[in-house]
Amino acid sequence: xxxxxxxxxxxxxxxxxxxxxxxxxxxxxxxxxxxxxxxxxxxxxxxxxxxxxxxxxxxxxxxxxxxxxxxxxxxxxxxxxxxxxxxxxxxxxxxxxxxxxxxxxxxxxxxxxxxxxxxxxxxxxxxxxxxxxxxxxxxxxxxxxxxxxxxxxxxxxxxxxxxxxxxxxxxxxxxxxxxxxxxxxxxxxxxxxxxxxxxxxxxxxxxxxxxxxxxxxxxxxxxxxxxxxxxxxxxxxxxxxxxxxxxxxxxxxxxxxxxxxxxxxxxxxxxxxxxxxxxxxxxxxxxxxxxxxxxxxxxxxxxxx
Length: 305
Fold this sequence. Notes:
The chain is an alpha/beta fold. The protein has a single domain, classed as 3-Layer(aba) Sandwich (Rossmann fold), CATH 3.40.50. It has an eight-stranded mixed β-sheet with strand order 2-3-5-4-7-8-9-10, with helices on both faces. The protein has a two-stranded antiparallel ribbon with strand order 1-6.
């Protein structure tokens, strides 16, 4: 299988993205990640979804690391600065879980605050269920862990088939359709940067179709097993969802009803679309920092009791 690597020149001087790139190899593929802030401080893991990359979190990275915390934000394989396998057959759900899990083991980070959005939720929640001791708290933003029993909004079906069959995928336009605001020219350049041509887009084409939407999907069974752990999750669990995201709307209430650690948390629905990080980065950053302080306070109480 051919593997493509986006030329580094396409990432030069991107707007609001001054971060030093870090690279490692997982399963013979080069994975890129951002690693900002003090290495010995509390780590915040930011997992993006489709069709974005760590650029989605640029403002949050600056604000959270600026407050003294370590921020790590990988680009999923097939996205951002990471390698891009040319075949859609590579992009299996479990493969993406394994790669991020192996990467976390490699960088030896623990006591993580997970912030996951879109496909980042499908990956992050599975890892949290497999190794709950890695995480001190979880924030889910416009995401879910589906088991095939939920009714998917028709817009998700449209997106799945568009991504799979359209001869051209305008990434910047996809983001515009999922936001109340519109991207600037510089931001459009940044979101399109990872994809010089269609041959780099196998991940975008494949992953929407990998979301388990039927109960007999093998990944639905794996997600149901993960829910057995998450239904006993007592650590802090916060939802930050959007008012104008029809695909994930209501997912926050479902998560809150199933996960004990969500009790007493100040869950929020922010005004905006699916890519809420582009619209409310300041507010989300503040909420993350407040969540870290509450989590640390709870851990101190638990250790003293």
